[in-house]
Amino acid sequence: MSARPYRETLLFVVLVIAVVASGIQVAWISHEVRRLHAELEDAQRAQDEHLAEYSRLLLERSARSSFQNVERLAQEQLSMRFPEQVEHLER
Amino acid sequence: MKAWRHYLVVIVFLGACAGVAARVVVLNVTDREFLQEQGDLRAVRPQVLPAYRGVIYDRHGEPLAVSTPVAAVWTDPSFVRLSDDAIAQVARVLERDPQALAREIAANAGRQFLYLARRVPWDVAERVQALGLDGVYIQREYRRYYPAGEMAAHVVGMTNIDDLGLEGLELSYDELLRGRPGLKTVLKNRRGETIKNLDYVRAPRFGGDVTLSIDLRLQFMAFRELKAAVAGHRARSGSLVMLDARTGEILALVNEPSYNPNDLGPASREGMRNRAITDTYEPGSTIKPFTVLAAIESGRWQPSTPIDTAPGYFRVGNKLVQDPVNRGTITLRQALQKSSQVAIAKVALDLEQNAVFDVLLRAGIGDFVGTGLPGETAGHLSSHGLDHPVVRATLAYGYGLAVSPLQLAQGYLTLASGGHRRPVSVLKQDSVPSGTPVFDADDVRTVVRMMESVVEKEGTAPAARVPGYRIAGKTGTSRKVGPGGYDDERHVALFAGLAPASDPRFVIVVVINEPGGTAKGGGEVAAPVFGRVAARALRLLGVPPDGEPVAT
Question: Do B145 and A40 touch (CB under 8 A)?
C-alpha cells in the first residue's frame, strides 16, 4: 500500500478521538443515569414517608379536633354546658 | 468453473454448521446450570408505582377520607416453595395462624401470586423483609381511613380493598381521586430485590382532592339526633337532609342505619343504602305549603280567607276526605297550621286544574336532583289524571306522589331562597350559583309567614321551635302502602322546615320511617329532631336571633 495523503491520516485520527470521546461520554452518562435514578428512588421514598406522616398527622388532628372530642373535653374538664336557651343580656 | 471451489464452499458451510451444533450442545449440557442460575438472578420486570389517592375534605378542611401507605405481603407458590420454618417465621410476624397459612399456600400451589397478608402497617412489613426469606415479597398499597366513620359514610362512601371507589363520592369521583399509577422497568433478582433501574416509563400522577359542601360539625349533630330519634321511636330507619338556603349546598346528609366504612361488618348491607337519596316516600302534608302557594299565586286567596270545613269531612268522587275533628270555619292560615285535609282539598278544587301540579314542578319536586351521588332517584310526580277532582285533592295534601328526602329539601329550598331555584350540590361552591326565579318573592314570603304558625302552640309542631328564633315548617304523616292498600299501622313521619324565618339560612328535612312506638305523627316524631338540630346549627353558624326574646 502506498503512503496515505496527509488529509486522510488527519481524518482518521480525528475519528479515533471522536470514538474514544463518545465512549467515555456513554460511560459517564450511564453513571449519571444510575446516580439520578438512585436520587429519584430516595426522593420517592422520602415522599412516601412524608405522605405517611402527613396522613397520620391529618388523622390525628381530625381526631383531636373532632366535635365529639371538643364537646367531651369542654364538659368533663372545663365543666362547660350548652346554653339551653338564648339569653338576651340587654336590648 | 473449477470444481474445487464448489467443494470448498460446501466444506466451509458444513464446518460452520458443525461448529454451531457443537456450541449448542456445550451450552445446553455443560454450561446449563451456570446459565440458568445467572438467568434467574436477574429478570426484567415492570413495576407499578402506585398513585396516592386524593383526600376528601369537608367544607372547613376536616379530612373525611385519607389514604395511608401500607404494605401487602405476597409470595409466588409456583416458583418458590416456602419451608415450614419460613412459613412459621412469616406467620409470627404477621400474627397469623401458621397452620392456616401453610394450608392456604398448599391449596394455591399452582398459582404465581398469593397474598399472605394485606393492609399491613409499614413497620410490620419491614420486619417481614428483615427475615430475609426467599420468595416472600413486599408490595406497597394504600389503605383508606375514614375519620368520620359511620357519621358521613353515606356521603363519602368507601373504597374496596384495591383502593377503587365502591360507594358514595368515592365512586362518583373515582376517576379524579384515583390519579394514575406510574410505571418503570427494573432488573430484579429472584428475591425480588431491584438490582438495576432500566427505564422510568412514567411518573405516578397523584389523585386530586375533593372538598365537599358538608359541614362535619352539623353532620355529626344531625347524625346523633337522628340516631337517638330512630332508636327512641323504634323506627325502621330515618334520614335527615340539611341544605344551605343561600347556596343550595348540602350541609348535612345522614341516614340511620348507617355503616362503618373503616370496618365493614358482615351485617352492614342494610346500612349501606343512602336512603335520603335512593328511597322515596309519600310526602303527605309537607306538600301543603305548595298548595297554599298555588292558592296565593291565583290571587283569589289570602291568608285570612275563610274556609268552611264543617262537618269535618266531605266526599270527592268516591273518596272521603276527613279531618280528625270538625274544625268549623277556619282561615287559610289555620288550614296550614292545623294541617286540615278538608280545607286544603277544598282549596285545591277551587284552583285551576294544573295549579298545584305546576307549583310542585317549579319547586323541583319530582325532578332529578343531580348531586352526582350514586343511586339517586327521580321520585314520582305525574300529571296523569289531573282532570279527576280526586287526584287533584289528594295531590294537594301530598298523596299520589313520591319523593326522596333530598327532593323534598330541594323543594323547600325554593321557599327558603325567596322563590329562587338553585342546583343542589354536594361539592363546596366557590361562588353562589345563580338561581332561576320560579316564584314571586312576596308570595313566598306570605307562605313562609303562614308556615311559622305551624310551630306555635296551636300548630301541629310546637316541638320544632327554637327559643329566640323564628322557625317555619310543616309536618307530614303519611301511611305506607302495604299489600292491601294503605296500611294503618305503618307510617312515615316527616318534618320539613327552614330557619330563621326572617332570613332563612338553612332548610332541614327529617324523615322517620315506620316509628314503632305510640307516637306516629310528624309533629311528635320528626319535629323534635328538627328543633334540636336547628337549635345547635343556628348557634354553630352564628345566626343572630330574630324572634321574641326569651325570658330566662
Answer: no
Does the annotation mark B383 as catalytic?
no
Q: Which of B49, B124, B145 to substitute to test the interface with A, most A CBs within 10 Å?
A: B145
Give residue A3's pLDDT: 58
- Contact with chain A for residue B544, Cβ under 8 A: no
Q: Which amino acid is it at B115?
A: Y
3-state SS class at B45: strand
Are B194 and B185 a contacting pair, CB within 8 Å? no
- Asked if B225 and B391 touch (Cβ cutoff 8 Å), the reply is no
According to the model, what pLDDT value does residue B275 have?
93
What is residue B426's three-state secondary structure? coil
Nearest to B549 among A41, A48, A91 (CB): A91
Number of helices (H), then strands (E), belonging to chain B: the values are 20, 21
Residue A67 to residue B221, Cβ atoms within 8 A: yes
- Burial class for B490, CB neighbours closer than 10 Å (0-12, 13-18, 19+): middle
Which residue from A34, A52, A66 is facing B69, i.e. has the nearest CB?
A52
d(CA B170, CA B153): 10
What percent of chain B shows pLDDT beyond 70?
A: 97
Complex confidence, ipTM: 0.72
Average the pLDDT over B95-103 and give the result.
Answer: 85
Please check the confidence at residue A86 and state whether its pLDDT lies above 60: no
- Alpha helices per DSSP H over B375-429: 389-396, 405-416
Query: How does residue B552 score in pLDDT terms, banded at 50, 70 and 90?
Result: very low
Q: How many residues would you count in chain B?
A: 552
C-alpha B405/C-alpha B401 separation (Å) is 13
